[in-house]
Design goal:
The complex is a heterotrimer of chains A (about 250), B (about 400) and C (about 300). Chain A is an alpha/beta fold and about 250 residues long. Chain A contains seven helices and 13 strands. The relative contact order of chain B is 0.11. The chains are: A alpha/beta (about 250), B alpha+beta (about 400), C alpha/beta (about 300). Chains in contact: A-B, A-C, B-C.
């Protein structure tokens, strides 16, 4: 079984600093593998363990993002494909177009796995777009994937319901985080990961952007947090009474 | 928080310009593992609600102990400074686990340096992958760590050594499945590998400690305990030298461990100082609190540089015994001050909150264990005086 | 003929919210709103402008794939300026596929929509809610509208227009659909939410939080570990980046550490109070009122104090 997994080198939102003018300091900001992508890699590895084959990790990003690709390889993926592009300036459709183009060059994949959304921008658009551009069935928000020969049965986790969906291989999917517990690569795997093959493709060459402008980011500013930060002390009973007094004054106690 | 910070990364880059990326990847991964899987358990390890085995095994499975050992025994063959920094991170995540692992690794280093090839084959591989847990049995109830005056004896009889005596304050005792035992033969202090279970091997009750409560500490008692001849490490009569050599390396690592403890106590104190209000402003606005912040930060950095300096001399094959001692004396004493200041900054909460004062309780061990500050100052000054001649 | 802004959501209440957003875009673009139905008319949808019924697929089998294909076929002929969908899980999928089919941009989970006539702008949360990004896309464009960001439209749509898009087949087959259990919570409309985190030691202890929620006439929510990792509460109780986004009058976080991913789901609450044993827990940074204490002592104390007041 040939399995493609898409990952993103996301901005580490916990480490992101806000500049004096209120805009985030994205240049040089710390990055990491998008949190839920670990579930996507894990599911790819799980499917490989059950059905043999190989797991190929695809990523659109700059040079600094290689460590995310390497982390996926350390987890156990067999090889990586890095599509180089300036990720700040492109929208989801552009990213998906480059991913799909890179996959088409690598031959036909039986399963294409993404996570439900990136932990930094969380649009959730790339996975269905990749499925659409590859022209294969797509089932999003999977919390369970079972494959028997050419038939796949997938549980989709929606807001208030769970759908069982049948699809034929090949198909594309996005996984939600409850699908599995991602493994930690061991130190040996981390050291060996640098020896695994990574192919670099130029995004503009494999999928020329043309004149399309797509979604542009006009500005970014930090969310003001105007919380009061009042710490209430005293015994549990005293604290409880003080809290209820405060909440009554706020008019939020029903 | 992130345990492996940009500051750590920068130091790796300075120490190992050519391969820092790889070392940082290893430490980043280890740090995030510790942060998610170990740090949250730390209060429970301290309170006794979580036994040490599972987190320690998980850490071994990640490859923590493989770092400084050669590839031919299954190790990663990375520089000692990478290992020392890994122990610093571990000290931040949980000091007890760090202590247990650090002593285990010190024994492994002893086997690598002084053991025979068959001993390395039998013990080293399983130790560094964590399949065998090791314990270092040197200190005695009466003579402490003064290897020359040990009372435990090993008498050679018909192809084996018969050991009698006892060892005190032994970390990992009772849990370990290999003990590096020091005992006197007719030729003087000698070193043996002992595999339990063994008829003459008994353990005292678990000692109730001030800190480092997640790790197990017991007395080890030998009464006609038999060790096969082939388990003698190196030569008879050289045990005291081996013990010293092993402890020199361990002192670097203990310094790193205490830097790790200090870092967490400092992070907590800093966060608290920025948040706690008194007299209409945060307490971080007060100069005397700022003094503590400045001194602790400076102390942590100095301690870190000292242990990395000693590590680097060790990597380059030089004599690092004095620098290792300097690092340990400085970092352990600095750590006590840092953890004490963290309690002070937290005020009443510091004195009453386990999760604050346990850092001081943990740090308190290591101006004593593995060479007291007093003994180490002797060692440092002796070398300085010798050089001046 | 003036341009059109289309509204579609598989959920009728969400469609009515999207209609309000569409009105703002239509106004700036001097366009008309069309409430789109696929297969059959849903009389419960509201919104200004007219209806557009896409005929071809049967109403009961409109999967995201079918919706996206039907909308794409109609859009190729009728050329709307914009298609707005709800940012539900299905809605995100329909929007993304539609944008890919048409080769146009898609703004994700936006609020504050407006149009300058040539395109539309909106605001969305990024970096787990730390930052608001203002985004723009040239017409024609697709967007998903943040659920809960707009009031529901009230007006009845006017004249109906029909478009036959022909039969649409789906490559996948939905063979089962189950309501997630225990539901009955509508956190999005709750005025008071008591939310449980890892500080709760065992599943049975959730009962005391549920009691408090009832006493406060509110609903019970939780952070991700309780639903995703421990499975103590169904997924629809999960408040956070990947769960439900809520904005109650009062959000009481109990034993929740306050990771950014959780805060992203509750930061629009009017008042936030939290209880945590760790005085350094990040949740206190996102709170108006904080109590450092053991929830097993503070919650019963709160219940006693509440009972005494009533």
């Amino acid at each position: 079984m040939k399995i493609a997994v898409c990952v993103k080198h996301a901005v580490d939102e916990a480490e992101l600093k806000i500049g004096p003018g209120g805009s985030p300091l994205l240049a040089g900001a710390a990055g990491k593998m998008s949190t839920f992508d670990k579930n996507a890699v894990e599911e790819g590895l799980r499917l490989k363990a059950a059905h043999q084959g190989e797991v190929v990790v695809f990523m659109v990003g700059g040079t600094e993002s290689k460590k995310t690709l390497k982390e996926a390889l350390a987890m156990g993926a067999d090889r990586g494909v890095l599509v180089t592009a300036d990720t700040v300036a492109i929208d989801a459709l552009r990213t998906a177009t480059m991913l799909a183009a890179a996959m088409k060059r690598s031959g036909r994949f039986d399963v294409v796995i993404c996570s439900e959304g990136a932990s930094d921008t969380y649009t959730g658009q790339v996975p269905p777009m990749v499925g659409e551009l590859l022209g294969i069935p797509y089932v999003g928000y999977a919390r369970k994937i079972e494959i028997d020969g050419k038939a796949a049965k997938i549980e989709r986790s929606l807001e208030d319901s769970v759908e069982s969906v049948e699809a034929a291989v090949p198909f594309a999917t996005s996984v939600v985080s409850e699908i599995n517990d991602p493994r930690y690569p061991t130190l040996i795997q981390i050291m060996q990961a640098s020896k695994k093959p990574v192919e670099e493709l130029n995004g503009e060459e494999i999928a020329p952007a043309g004149s399309r402008r797509g979604v542009e980011v006009l500005s970014m500013s930090s969310q003001p947090t105007a919380r009061k930060h009042v710490m209430i002390d005293g015994s549990p009973d005293e604290a409880a009474a003080k809290l209820l007094d405060a909440l009554s004054k706020e008019g939020v106690l029903k | 928080m992130t345990i492996f910070t940009a500051e750590h990364r920068q130091l790796m880059q300075m120490l190992h310009p050519g391969r820092h990326q790889e070392y940082s990847d290893v430490l980043t991964s280890l740090g995030s593992f510790m942060e998610k899987e170990l740090l949250p358990l730390s209060p429970k390890l301290d309170s006794g609600d979580e036994p040490i085995d599972r987190p320690r095994s998980a850490l071994f499975a990640q490859g923590m102990s493989l770092i400084p050992f050669p590839a031919q025994y299954g190790g990663l063959g990375l520089p000692f400074s990478v290992y020392a920094m890994a122990v610093e991170l571990l000290g931040t995540a949980d000091a007890s686990v760090a202590l247990s692992v650090e002593i285990h690794n010190a024994v492994a280093e002893g086997v690598l340096r002084f053991g025979s090839e068959p001993q390395r084959e039998r013990y080293l591989g399983p130790m560094i992958t964590g399949r065998r847990l090791a314990s270092f049995a040197l200190t005695e109830p009466a003579s402490g760590s003064d290897a020359g005056n040990m009372a435990t004896t090993a008498e050679k009889r018909a192809g084996e050594y018969v050991v009698n005596g006892s060892k005190m304050f032994i970390t990992n005792a009772g849990e370990a499945n290999v003990y590096l035992v020091f005992a006197k033969t007719s030729k003087g202090p000698s070193c043996f590998l002992l595999e339990p279970p063994s008829a003459g091997l008994k353990f005292g009750a678990e000692l109730k400690k001030l800190g480092m409560r997640g790790s197990k500490t017991r007395e080890v008692i030998f009464s006609d305990c038999r060790i096969p001849e082939e388990n003698l490490v190196g030569e008879e009569g050289k045990g005291a030298d081996y013990a010293k050599a092993i402890l020199h390396g361990a002192r670097i690592v203990v310094a790193a461990l205490n830097v790790g403890i200090s870092q967490l106590a400092y992070d907590k104190a800093l966060a608290y100082a920025r948040q706690r209000h008194a007299f209409g402003r945060t307490i971080s606005d007060f100069q005397l609190v700022r003094e503590k912040i400045a001194d602790t930060k400076t102390g942590i950095n100095a301690g870190r540089l000292l242990y990395l300096y000693a590590s680097r001399i060790k990597e380059l094959g030089g004599d690092y015994s004095s620098e290792a001692s300097q690092a340990k004396v400085f970092a352990t004493e600095m750590s006590l001050k840092a953890c004490d200041d963290a309690i002070q900054i937290h005020g009443g909460y510091g004195y009453t909150t386990e999760d604050i004062h346990r850092h001081w309780r943990d740090a308190r061990l290591l101006t004593i264990g593995e060479g007291t500050s007093e003994v180490l100052r002797m060692l440092i000054s002796r070398r300085e005086l010798a050089r001046a001649q | 003929m003036s341009g059109q802004v289309w509204v579609y959501s598989e959920s009728e209440p969400v469609a009515n919210e999207v209609a309000t957003a569409a009105a703002a875009v239509a106004q700036g673009a001097s366009a008309e709103v069309r409430m789109v139905d696929i297969g059959s008319v849903r009389p419960a949808t509201r919104g200004s402008g007219g209806r557009l019924l896409l005929k071809g697929p049967a109403g009961h089998e409109v999967s995201p794939a079918v919706a996206a294909e039907a909308l794409a076929r109609a859009a190729k002929d009728l050329a709307p300026l914009a298609v707005l969908l709800g940012a539900t899980r299905d809605g995100r999928e329909v929007a993304s596929r539609l944008a890919a089919k048409l080769g146009i941009g898609c703004m994700a989970e936006v609020a504050g929509l407006a149009s300058d006539g040539q395109g539309m702008t909106g605001e969305r949360n990024v970096f787990a809610g730390k930052v608001v990004a203002k985004v723009r896309c040239q017409f024609p464009a697709v967007a998903t509208v943040k659920v809960g960001a707009y009031p529901k439209a009230a007006a009845q749509p006017g004249e109906s227009q029909e478009k036959d898009v022909g039969p649409v087949s789906d490559q996948t087959k939905t063979v089962g659909r189950e309501k997630k259990p225990a539901g009955a919570v509508d956190l999005r409309s709750a005025k008071v939410i008591v939310s449980a985190g890892r500080g709760v030691k065992k599943k049975e202890d959730l009962a005391i939080l549920a009691e408090l929620a009832t006493a406060m006439r509110g609903a019970l929510g939780c952070s991700r570990p309780l639903s995703a990792d421990l499975g103590w509460l169904p997924e629809e109780h999960h408040i956070g980046l990947t769960g439900v986004t809520v904005k109650p009058d009062l959000y009481l976080a109990v034993g929740i550490s306050g990771q950014l991913q959780h805060v992203a789901g509750m930061k629009d609450s009017k008042v936030v109070a939290s209880i945590n044993t760790d005085k350094d827990a990040p949740i206190f940074q996102a709170s108006d009122y904080g109590i450092v204490g053991d929830l097993y002592q503070v919650i019963p104390a709160l219940e006693r104090a509440l009972a005494a007041r009533r």
